[in-house]
């Protein structure tokens, strides 16, 4: 019997506390280390082994009996009577047996350990390929049994629909229904999916729906009043345009991507309005920017993506403004407009940060490599890029609601998650989200071979060497996956390989329709797959027959990312669950990471050492690259912390302003 999902609208969402400072922060960090420490891990490990052993005993239960036991357990968790948590091991044992019967997968002890960690509000670091999808189901079921909304957050729509579909039989068996919400869905479909016990979706959909729901007219923020209104006027339920049931538990897959990489970008719900004056201004700014000479009129700082006008640049701009409309008379405003146009020219590249589709600029997500047709850059940047591309300018938009992902996820009462790469950011997870990181051991020892990196003076020689290595693997019958940082680079390599007669599959934001098919073929004998970060997370590449004997999948990292975690995710596509596999990174002296984050004199010295073939030069470049990656990560962390502090400050300032008005 399936119990109806509880109507949760009437309950308040948790209000996030402030970030601890000074001594409080020190004490808080110590607590984090304790909660994510070896003792906790040992305790969960022992419990997990007992649970798996217990589940093996339940093999003898008839299907009817197993369902009955699950129903009783669901009732315990729904009522939350005192001591119900003592039933946790038995509940997990029943679910483990159910997973075997419905999905043909009995969770390994390390998966049960991961499930326990997530249930207790930790972030389980589980290596890639260890079966996080199944692991997440157990805490999701335990949470959804309470009748409160449980959201499983995945990295993209494809994974949301895939995971909800694959795991549906287990949820049904446990008396729950599972749904998924994706970008293309209409409100009615969204509502019906959000009404399910467990909902798979992406952080963007979840936050956008949360904000849109909050914008609905007549929404009472007070829980008791809302309940009363619904009792007095049952029609209010039908007229309620909100799609979500509320927020309670979020289990976040690829938690580092969601809670760290994307955390700083605020999600903004906006309405576009025609503004001819702004359109003309953007075109004028573009024309002026085109007349400025780099080095003479402005200087650009690539590391911080910052542009500064020189005195000559200011003078030239002032002279140009004399013949322009009033808006250009204000010095600060005209500089802002031209700096935006210059940023568009200097830092934004087609095929990297964006593509042009049907006459529109479409943003490519830097971390996932996917297109984001709903997103636009703010403060005139989108229009500046359109102007540079010679496209019709879109109307600017007015902000209706905004919230950063960081702040949003701090609203949840229960937060848990998993990822293959959390260690580097353990401090940040605890500091910002109160999530201790627990490193779960692998089910089988990992036999991945990390081959020494290869270093080249320039990108042309690097790409030629990559093509040679791909050809070598292809001839030997080994499948290869090459990860690139941009769409343009993936296309370039594909053209190069095709020129050499090597058939290859290309997976990027522009060619994504056959994603599932490409991934299904990527582990077959002789397959060559070139992919942007799209293949970096969640893709499960199965080895074809005889491929393991040849050495398994070989991964080539063609250019390192600012966050080391992203490289580790890509490398994690090979050698899953104890299979063989290997990975190699390629570096060139003009890689963006080195250009932006390694000091220029060091780069010059290294380039000379490389050109002269000095022993140890390649190792030095690799060390410099590691330092550059650390510098990039530190900068990104500081930016995220600032965003959260600004968010807190804004919310304080706004609530103060409101209470003043009300008072
Ligand atoms: N207990 C199990 N028994 C048998 N097969 C399993 C089990 N758990 C997971 N698998 C299989 O292992 C493979 C990897 O699982 P999954 O994609 O969930 O890994 P992952 O940890 O999410 O990887 P990634 O970090 O790359 O996203 C899948 O093919 C899945 O069916």
Topology:
Blueprint: H1 22-35, H2 38-57, H3 63-79, H4 88-103, H5 109-119, E1 123-125, H6 132-144, E2 150-154, H7 157-173, E3 178-181, H8 187-194, E4 198-202, H9 203-214, H10 223-232, H11 235-239, E5 249-253, H12 255-261, E6 266-272, H13 276-291, E7 298-301, E8 306-309, H14 311-321, H15 331-347, E9 354-357, E10 360-364, E11 371-372, H16 381-389, E12 397-404, H17 405-409, E13 414-419, H18 426-433, E14 437-439, E15 449-450, E16 454-456, H19 459-476, E17 480-483, H20 487-499, E18 505-507, H21 515-521, E19 528-531, E20 553-557, H22 564-571, E21 581-588, H23 592-597, H24 600-611, H25 617-662
Parallel strand pairs: 1-13, 1-14, 2-4, 2-5, 3-4, 5-13, 15-21, 16-21, 17-19, 17-20, 18-19, 20-21
Antiparallel strand pairs: 6-12, 7-8, 9-10, 10-11
Helix pairs in contact: 2-4, 2-5, 3-4, 4-7, 5-6, 6-7, 13-15, 13-16, 15-16, 24-25
Report what the structure shows:
The chain has 25 helices and 21 strands. By secondary structure, it is an alpha/beta fold. Strands 3-4-2-5-13-1-14 form a 7-stranded parallel beta sheet, with helices on both faces. Strands 15, 16, 17, 18, 19, 20 and 21 form a 7-stranded parallel beta sheet that branches. Strands 9-10-11 form a 3-stranded antiparallel beta sheet, with helices on one face. Strand 7 (298-301) and strand 8 form a beta hairpin. It has 3 domains: 22-226 and 246-258 and 415-439, Rossmann fold (3-Layer(aba) Sandwich); 274-395, Pre-protein croslinking domain of SecA (Alpha-Beta Complex); 449-588, Rossmann fold (3-Layer(aba) Sandwich), CATH 3.40.50.300. Mean pLDDT is 85; it is low at 3-14 and 655-663. It is globular and about 85 Å long. Helix 2 (38-57) packs across helix 4. The chain binds adenosine-5'-triphosphate. Adenosine-5'-triphosphate is lined by residues 105-108, 111, 126, 128-134, 420, 538, 540, 572, 577.
């Amino acid at each position: 019997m399936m119990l109806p999902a509880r109507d949760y609208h009437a309950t308040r969402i948790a209000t996030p506390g402030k970030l601890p400072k000074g001594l409080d922060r020190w004490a808080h960090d110590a607590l984090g280390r304790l909660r994510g420490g070896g003792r906790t891990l040992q305790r969960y490990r022992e419990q997990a082994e007992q649970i798996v052993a217990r589940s093996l005993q339940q093999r003898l239960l008839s299907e009817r009996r197993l369902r009955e036991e699950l129903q009783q357990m669901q009732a315990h968790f729904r009522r939350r009577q005192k001591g119900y948590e003592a039933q946790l091991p038995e509940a997990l044992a029943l679910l483990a047996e159910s997973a075997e019967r419905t999905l043909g997968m009995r969770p390994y002890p390390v998966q049960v350990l991961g499930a326990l960690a997530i249930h207790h509000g930790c972030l389980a670091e589980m290596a890639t390929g260890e079966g996080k999808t199944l692991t997440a189901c157990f805490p999701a079921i335990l949470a959804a049994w309470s009748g409160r909304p449980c959201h499983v957050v995945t990295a993209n729509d494809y994974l949301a629909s895939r995971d909800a579909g694959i795991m549906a039989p287990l949820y049904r068996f446990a008396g729950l229904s599972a749904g998924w919400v994706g970008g293309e869905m209409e409100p009615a479909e969204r509502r019906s999916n959000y009404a399910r016990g467990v909902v798979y979706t992406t952080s963007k959909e979840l936050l956008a729906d949360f904000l849109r729901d909050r914008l609905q007219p007549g929404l009472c923020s007070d829980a008791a009043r809302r309940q009363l209104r619904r009792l007095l006027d049952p029609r209010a339920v039908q007229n309620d345009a909100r799609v979500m049931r509320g927020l309670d538990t979020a289990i976040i897959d690829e938690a580092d991507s969601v809670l760290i990489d994307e955390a700083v970008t605020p999600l903004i719900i906006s309405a576009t309005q025609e503004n001819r004056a702004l359109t003309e201004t953007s075109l004028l700014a573009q024309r002026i920017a085109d007349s400025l000479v780099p080095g003479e009129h402005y200087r650009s700082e690539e590391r911080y993506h910052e542009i500064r006008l020189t005195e000559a640049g200011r003078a030239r701009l002032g002279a140009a403004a004399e013949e322009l409309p009033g808006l250009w008379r204000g010095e600060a405003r005209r500089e802002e407009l031209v700096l935006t146009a210059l940023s568009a020219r200097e830092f934004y590249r087609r095929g990297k940060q964006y593509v042009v589709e049907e006459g529109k600029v479409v943003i490519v997500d830097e971390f996932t490599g996917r297109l984001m047709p709903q997103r636009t850059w703010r403060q005139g940047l989108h229009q500046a890029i359109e102007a540079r591309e010679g496209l019709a300018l879109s109307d600017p938009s007015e902000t209706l609601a905004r919230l950063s992902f960081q702040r949003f996820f701090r609203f949840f009462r229960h937060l848990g998650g998993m990822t293959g790469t959390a260690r580097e950011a353990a401090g940040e997870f605890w500091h910002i989200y109160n999530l201790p990181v627990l490193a779960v051991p692998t089910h089988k020892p990992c036999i991945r071979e990390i081959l020494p990196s290869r270093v080249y003076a320039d990108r042309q020689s690097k790409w030629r060497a990559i093509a040679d290595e791909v050809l070598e693997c292809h001839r030997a019958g080994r499948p290869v996956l090459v990860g690139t940082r941009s769409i343009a680079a993936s296309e370039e390599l594909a053209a190069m390989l095709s020129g050499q007669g090597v058939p290859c599959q290309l997976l990027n934001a522009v060619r994504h329709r056959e994603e599932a098919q490409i991934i299904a073929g990527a582990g077959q004998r002789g397959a060559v797959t070139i992919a942007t970060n799209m293949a970096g997370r969640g893709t499960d590449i199965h080895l074809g027959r005889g491929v393991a004997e040849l050495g398994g999948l070989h991964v080539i990292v063609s250019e390192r990312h600012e966050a080391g975690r992203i490289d580790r995710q890509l490398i994690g596509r090979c050698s899953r669950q104890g299979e063989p596999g290997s990975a190699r990174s390629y570096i060139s002296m003009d890689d963006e990471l080195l250009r932006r984050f390694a000091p220029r004199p060091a780069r010059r010295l290294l380039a000379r050492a490389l050109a002269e073939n000095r022993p140890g030069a390649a190792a030095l470049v690799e060390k410099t690259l590691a330092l550059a990656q650390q510098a990039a990560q530190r900068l990104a962390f500081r930016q995220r912390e600032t965003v959260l502090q600004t968010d807190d400050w804004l919310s304080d300032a706004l609530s103060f302003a409101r209470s003043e008005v009300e008072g």
